[in-house]
Design goal:
The structure is a homodimer.
Chain A lengths: L2 H9 L15 H23 L4 H8 L3 H8 L7 H10 L4 H9 L7
Chain A binds a DNA duplex through helix 3 and helix 4.
DNA sequence: TGCAGCCATGTCATATATGACATATACTAA
DNA sequence: TTAGTATATGTCATATATGACATGGCTGCA
């Protein structure tokens, strides 16, 4: 179980341990993981809202299906950069993306 | 003159050409550049607010002075990732950072 | 039974970002 | 002047992220 999955469970209300530092997550690491999870979740929600498959989004991004899958899984090999580019490719504006980052639960569209 | 500097001038009100696509910036590229500029500006503002030199911040980030300088210059060799890590290292929360992304002008603290 | 579309996951060669270093400029104080 | 501090900028070896590919699971449909 890696940190990302760990954090995702918690974000969905599982309250593993004391929410934050179950495994040695520094405060700064948790902030980054939190952002990553929000972005990756929003990516999936929006991709589906657009009726696109991972393959279709990958084409827009000049990337590959496997990478899109990893993006949505908040894989540790995926940068925040790439997630931001993904959201932008789905029509997200800076203001949109700001809302995603600020939101506690990844709401729709 | 690269795209970043181009965009920064414009953000400060220079209105180079027709603001946006003076050089062939796609809409998606401008969104990303916009975010980068807001983050880099916020980084400088906050670093100074904390009374830190670039060297001091670099130490916190386990990076180097030159890289911090490039971060604040929105250099093309700097990722959004690194900028986000920089802001987090200065105490920025996801919500804080969201405000930075949404803001038109990089306000303080 | 296929078979096709969609997604997950692992591997790998290469592209890109990064820290470190050198060096330059600007400003201040002695 | 010289010295010290802060910042800017270019280069480079290496670390990391990326696209591509292979493969497997799952669902629905012929």
């Amino acid at each position: 179980m890696n940190k990302a999955k760990q954090k995702r469970l918690e974000a969905r209300g599982w309250r593993v341990g004391t929410t934050s530092d179950f495994l040695g997550l520094s405060e700064e690491e948790t902030a980054l993981v939190k952002m990553k999870l929000r972005l990756s979740h929003a990516l999936r929600v929006r991709r589906e809202a657009h009726g696109l498959s991972q393959v279709a989004l990958a084409k827009r991004l000049q990337s590959s299906q496997s990478r899109v899958a990893k993006m949505e899984a908040a894989d540790h090999t995926v940068s925040l950069d790439l997630l931001l580019r993904g959201l932008v490719a789905l029509g997200g504006t800076p203001r949109d993306i700001a809302r995603v980052l600020a939101r506690k639960s990844g709401v729709a569209a």
